[in-house]
Design brief:
Helix content: under 10%
Order of helices and strands: EEEE
Number of strands: 4
Mean pLDDT: 83
Largest sheet: 4 strands, antiparallel
Strand content: 35-45%
Oligomer: single chain
Structural class: mainly beta
Low-confidence stretches: none
Distance between the termini: 18 Å
Length: 78
């Protein structure tokens, strides 16, 4: 989890997904994944990292889970 930017320059990374969720209800029809909604969608939450549990209800049989739009953000000291 280290990014090598250039010779002698590296920093710790925090990996997360930008989009994560399930299919929206059938009655919604085709929708944009950009705004978060009942299906979750484009959350861009840096706290959704490896080991995190996200609870979400499903709106259709099988849920049709999606995770994508991966991010690697620079870790900061707390």
């Amino acid at each position: 989890m280290v990014a090598h930017f250039a010779d002698g320059i590296r920093f710790l990374c925090i990996h997360s997904f930008g989009s994560i969720g399930v299919a929206p209800p059938d009655v919604s029809g085709r929708i944009s994944s950009a705004p978060p909604w009942i299906h979750a969608g484009n959350l861009d939450n840096k706290e959704l990292v490896a080991g995190t549990t996200l609870f979400h209800s499903d709106s259709c049989k099988g849920a049709l889970f999606l995770a994508g739009d991966g991010h690697a953000g620079r870790a900061t000291a707390k």
